[in-house]
């Protein structure tokens, strides 16, 4: 059994695992958020002429890309997003979460090999990439200490780092969502909440840090944060291995007692008798059900024998029924993707597409009412100010706070009691679709851009504050809800979670199986659970791919939308 939410796990251990998943979530977006919010440092350092020092470049306002404001940020975003998305797509095509399954005849040896392979796999996907991110941060911190290094080298090194960050965080994102998908939904919520917190922390630094002077410290602390996230990932992998080994030892002791001679048979029979007496109290059917269940049990035995005979003889003409059952078992290796699963996928994709259409493409150009009046009076629609920089950073922080609040609210007891968490794929998709309204709302605020066509309806500063916070809140809530519910659609008991349990109880009450058949049934159940866990892991990783795809597509759509809203085009 490879599922990780075992009953023996204590509450304190679950809390520790929640924190570890939270750290993995922080690590997935921390590198990008750190680079994209170190604007003051890059304005002074990255945009200077070759051979020029930082102070002179700051005084003269000269740089490589002064003809296009924030073009280096666009280059950073493109480099990171494309590398991240390509990595996630490659991971999805490789089906790495199914690679660890073994076909050994010995069940105990097979499960041990599965546990070892999965531990190595998740180490490669979480611990090692975060360590590599820390190394890149430390190298950037050392580079920031040199005030006279050529701008060409700094730009090239930063872009190369963003490509590496995209690859490394793609691995972490795939591994963390895949691992969380096999557990309770609160672990997926913990991952996405960590992603939001990384944006909040980076926003605080952007507001308080004096860009150039504290750049080395900023990057160095970010490297230490990546080391902490790597430590959390490593502890999570070790705990996962420990849980699985403990579970396998328990299964092996039971199975070995069932299959062996009569040495352990009396104990097993006594335990079955005790359970039978308890279950008989819940018995609701008449004695006629006994014969019907016996008949079903015999039919099931015949089907099992036919399946074994068909597997050994491989005769297609005389065992048509057996082949049909084997075909069904083969199809179980790759469960069919349901319509509801696709709706959750599109909900994740659309959520981030809408978000990136408005944020930061439109929000970065929103200014305060006072600054808009000053610019209108001076005929300078592109004038930058210190207050404007702080206002933009404040809106960035506000969005991330709303994003974090939405993801935390999704896992709250209030949302659970109101039925806001457990929704269908159609509801999740509609929620994501309705968020398109934020694009015209934000476009109608004080957008300080030359040739902006949308009238300024919401001129007071309270409107963009409200809209940006709600944009972040709905983004976090919808993302957390869809990321948690998507993998659960692949569960065998998704539509009726209690019906299978009731049927199984009736069969066990009326037909106490023999020891050998009980062992075989347990083995088949373990294999089914393993297949289901693999499917959930792959679905969690695929949802992470849809998340990044939505970000990439939203960035493209934002350019088109801003081009439509601007006379003469966006660029």
Keyphrases for this structure?
571 residues; mainly alpha; Growth Hormone, Chain: A; 20 helices; 74% helix; 0% strand; globular; MGC82995 protein (ISS); transmembrane helix
What is the secondary structure topology, with strand pairs?
Layout lengths: L10 H27 L1 H7 L8 H7 L10 H24 L12 H38 L6 H31 L3 H24 L6 H45 L5 H16 L7 H26 L6 H13 L6 H20 L10 H10 L7 H25 L2 H5 L7 H10 L3 H6 L18 H24 L13 H12 L4 H51 L6
Helix pairs in contact: 1-6, 1-7, 1-8, 4-6, 4-20, 5-6, 5-8, 6-7, 6-20, 7-14, 7-18, 8-20, 10-11, 12-16, 12-18, 12-20, 14-18, 16-18
Subcellular location: Membrane
Organism: Bathycoccus prasinos
Family: Belongs to the SLC29A/ENT transporter (TC 2.A.57) family.
Compact summary:
By secondary structure, the chain is mainly α.
Structure notes:
The protein has 571 residues and is mostly helical. The chain folds into 2 domains: 14-256, Growth Hormone, Chain: A, CATH 1.20.1250; 337-571. Helices cover 74% and strands 0% of the residues. The protein is built from 20 helices and no strands. The protein has helices at 11-37, 39-45, 54-60, 71-94, 107-144, 151-181, 185-208, 215-259, 265-280, 288-313, 320-332, 339-358, 369-378, 386-410, 413-417, 425-434, 438-443, 462-485, 499-510, 515-565. Helix 1 runs antiparallel to helix 6, helix 6 runs antiparallel to helix 20 (515-565) and helix 8 (215-259) packs antiparallel against helix 20. The longest helix has 51 residues, at 515-565. The model is unreliable at 1-6, 57-70, 253-272, 284-297, 306-332 and 496-520 (pLDDT under 50). One of its GO terms (molecular function) is nucleoside transmembrane transporter activity. Pfam families: Nucleoside_tran. InterPro entries: Eqnu_transpt (IPR002259).
């Amino acid at each position: 059994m490879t599922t990780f939410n075992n009953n023996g796990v204590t509450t304190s251990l679950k809390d520790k695992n929640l924190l570890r998943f939270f750290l993995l979530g922080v690590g997935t977006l921390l590198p990008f958020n750190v680079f994209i919010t170190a604007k003051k440092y890059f304005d002074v350092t990255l945009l200077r002429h070759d051979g020029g020092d930082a102070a002179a470049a700051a005084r003269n306002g000269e740089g490589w890309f002064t003809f296009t404001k924030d073009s280096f940020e666009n280059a950073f975003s493109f480099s990171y997003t494309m590398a991240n998305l390509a990595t996630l797509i490659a991971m999805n095509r490789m089906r790495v979460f199914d690679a660890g399954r073994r076909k050994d005849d010995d069940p105990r040896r097979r499960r041990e090999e599965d546990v070892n392979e999965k531990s190595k796999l998740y180490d490669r996907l979480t611990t090692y990439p975060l360590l590599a991110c820390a190394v890149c941060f430390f190298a950037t911190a050392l580079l920031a200490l040199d005030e006279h290094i050529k701008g060409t080298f700094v730009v090239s090194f930063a872009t190369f780092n963003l490509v590496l960050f995209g690859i490394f965080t793609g691995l972490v994102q795939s591994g963390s969502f895949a691992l969380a998908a096999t557990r309770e939904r609160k672990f997926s919520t913990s991952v996405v909440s960590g992603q939001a917190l990384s944006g909040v922390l980076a926003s605080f630094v952007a507001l308080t840090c004096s860009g150039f002077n504290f750049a080395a410290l900023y990057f160095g602390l970010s490297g230490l944060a990546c080391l902490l996230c790597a430590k959390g990932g490593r502890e999570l992998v070790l705990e996962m291995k420990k849980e699985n080994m403990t579970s396998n030892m328990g299964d092996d002791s039971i199975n070995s007692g069932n299959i062996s001679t009569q040495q352990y048979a009396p104990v097993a029979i006594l335990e079955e008798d005790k359970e039978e007496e308890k279950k008989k109290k819940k018995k609701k059917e008449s004695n006629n059900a006994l014969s019907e269940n016996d008949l079903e049990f015999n039919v099931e035995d015949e089907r099992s024998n036919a399946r074994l005979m068909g597997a050994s003889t491989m005769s297609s003409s005389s065992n048509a029924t057996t082949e049909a059952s084997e075909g069904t078992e083969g199809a179980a290796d790759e469960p069919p993707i349901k319509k509801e699963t696709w709706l959750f996928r599109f909900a994740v994709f659309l959520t981030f597409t809408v978000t990136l259409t408005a944020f930061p493409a439109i929000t970065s150009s929103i200014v305060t009412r006072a600054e808009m009046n000053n610019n209108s009076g001076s005929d300078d629609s592109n004038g930058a100010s210190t207050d404007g920089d702080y206002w933009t950073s404040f809106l960035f922080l506000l969005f991330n706070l709303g994003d974090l609040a939405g993801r935390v609210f999704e896992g709250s007891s209030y949302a659970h009691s109101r039925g806001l968490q457990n929704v269908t794929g159609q509801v999740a998709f509609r929620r994501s679709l309705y968020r398109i309204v934020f694009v015209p709302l934000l476009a109608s605020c004080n957008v300080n851009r030359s040739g902006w066509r949308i009238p300024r309806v919401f001129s007071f500063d309270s409107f963009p504050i409200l809209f940006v916070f709600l944009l972040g809140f709905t983004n976090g809530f919808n993302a957390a809800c869809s990321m948690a519910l998507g993998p659960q659609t692949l569960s065998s008991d998704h539509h009726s979670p209690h019906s299978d349990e009731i049927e199984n109880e009736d069969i066990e009450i009326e037909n106490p199986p023999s020891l050998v058949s009980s062992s075989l049934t347990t083995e088949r159940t373990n294999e089914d659970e393993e297949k289901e866990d693999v499917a959930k892991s792959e679905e969690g990783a695929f949802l992470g791919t849809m998340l990044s795809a939505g970000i990439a597509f939203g960035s493209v759509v934002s350019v088109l939308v801003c081009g439509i809203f601007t006379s003469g085009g966006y660029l």
